[in-house]
Amino acid sequence: MRPSTRTRRSVPSRLEILRMKLRRIERGRDQWALAWQAALAVIDVSIIAFFIFGPFLRTGPSYLIIDYIIAVWILAELFARAFATGSVTTLLRRPMTWIDLVILATLLFPDALFNFAFLRAMRLWAVGASPLFVIVLKRLGCHHFKDVARASLNFLVFLFMVTGFVYTTFFYHQGGLIGFVDALYFTVATMTTTGFGDITLPGPLGKLTSVVTMIVGISLFVRLAQSIVRPYKVLYPCETCGLQRHEIDAVHCKACGQLLNIPNDND
Hints:
Distance between the termini: 59 Å
Radius of gyration: 23 Å
Largest sheet: 2 strands, antiparallel
Helix content: 55-70%
Shape: flat
Oligomer: single chain
């Protein structure tokens, strides 16, 4: 007896199974998905390390080989995300997609687009946005440091972005080690508003770079300090007044007195 059309359609095809597995890897929280996310996180951290230490390696013969290998990997990631999403429009609405496209362009055309190589540091945000990031903090017993960890991540992303921009724009003609260290030194001195003045950036572009670095850098530094100093609170919106943050053992909302039912782990 031949199976009905309805029965045959209920069996997922291989492409549908692959799509479900890719979605599970991206958003899943089970052991299998977390193992894949951990492996991908190791690769991401290795890629970021190559981006950061790239100025030390750019004169070596293997630099372009590794550069193009990473380009192939990022392109494969983009195709996998597009296939898992099932909609190019939805994929293009994600900020990380555009970041990866720009990074991919800098990898494929390193000589022409070396001035945009500083955007490669934004790959750090992908690590912080992963479900694995929160789960690892929970398993380490550091879940209450989530805000501190993300503030530190944002600070590091901006630090290396500015360092990369300053290096490629003002110090690229110098040797890899000397130029990169000078760019990093200038960035840290400017972000902390120390301003020793022994290294300055020439021209209007240099002055504008210094202004933006000081304004954004000190804001991120203050945000990091606040997340460290202020007492730990949980995110639990009050149904009456909408207050988002409460003490972990709060019974009533301190703004309106509404009875709260904040979930806890009995610890």
